[in-house]
Specification:
Elements (H helix, E strand, L loop, with lengths): L14 H12 L2 H4 L5 H18 L27 H19 L6 H18 L1 H4 L2
Length: 132
């Protein structure tokens, strides 16, 4: 567990720990080279999409009148937080893990899935290059 010395002290569960634990659960087939069923493939695509949304946030939500500015983080404006940086690092790490797993994957559909997800990660990490 990473020591988080922010607002809630050293015992806080960090964003990096949260995303690392989520990745470990969602991508449990990778280290074993196990086939990935349709439900897990869907979950994994949603996971990459969620990280993409953190790395490349859309237009920030507006703060409703009367709410304190400190609540901006809850309205989706994460642009100036560490969250996009941590999500990018998670995608880079996942890209390496998937790249290493593809040659070992024996299930044809699982291999296609991993190749597709690898392309989605590439697009998330370099949106300007892939949207030309």
């Amino acid at each position: 567990m990473t020591v988080c010395t922010g607002r809630y002290g050293a015992a806080a569960y960090s964003v990096d720990d949260l995303l690392t634990d989520a990745k470990r659960g969602v991508w449990s087939e990778l280290p074993a080279g196990a086939p990935i069923d349709i439900y897990r493939r869907n979950l994994q695509k949603v996971y990459v999409e969620a990280l993409d949304n953190l790395v490349n946030p859309g237009a920030p939500a507006t703060v409703p009148a009367g709410l304190p500015r400190g609540l901006v983080i809850f309205t989706g404006d994460i642009k100036y937080t560490d969250v996009p940086s941590i999500a990018r690092a998670q995608l880079v790490e996942l890209r390496s893990e998937i790249t290493a797993a593809i040659p070992k994957e024996t299930d044809k559909v699982s291999k296609y899935h991993l190749q597709d997800v690898l392309e989605r990660i590439k697009q998330a990490l370099n949106p300007k290059e892939t949207n030309k």
